[in-house]
Every structure is written in structure tokens, then in C-alpha cells.
Amino acid sequence: MSRVKRNYTVEFKQKAVELSYARGSVVERYRELDKPSSLLRRWRRESKDLGEISFPGKGNPKLTDEQREIAELKKKLRNAELERGILKKEKAIFS
Description:
This protein is mostly helical and about 100 residues long. It is built from 4 helices and no strands. Helix content is about 70%, strand content about 0%.
């Protein structure tokens, strides 16, 4: 028997986190939302650690400005290495 992975909207996650901070204990919020306790705990941690960039949606990684810059530089390096390899092969062919 396989488990079905549920997808929650960004708005739902943000509202759940807000409610969990606004009212009483976290355990009560879990019961109100009818969600596993680990789920809301993880959402709260992500919201606290990442702030506005938490809950980006499918396929959008959670990156800080520095991480985004590093990823961009790695991509440029990879492209430069590919171009260099192609030029080396062309030089060997036409020499």
C-alpha cells in the first residue's frame, strides 16, 4: 500500500504557520488543521530560517542570494569548459 503525497498551496502553509504562532500551543494547531505534527513543525522551521523565500513551490529551489550567484557562476564555468573543449577539437581537426 503506497502513500499519497499531498501538495499544499503556499498560502495554506503560510496561514498555518501564522496561526501556529498566533494561538496557544502548536499541538492544538495540529489537531485543528488535521495535519501531522512533523509537517507543521517543518513549515515553521522553514519559515523561520528562510523567511520570504520559504515554500517556493515545485521545482523552485530555496536559494539565498549567495547560493543563486554561486549557481550562476557554476553554470558559466560549465559553459566555458564546454566551449573550450569544442575549440580544442576544432583546432585538432583543422590543423
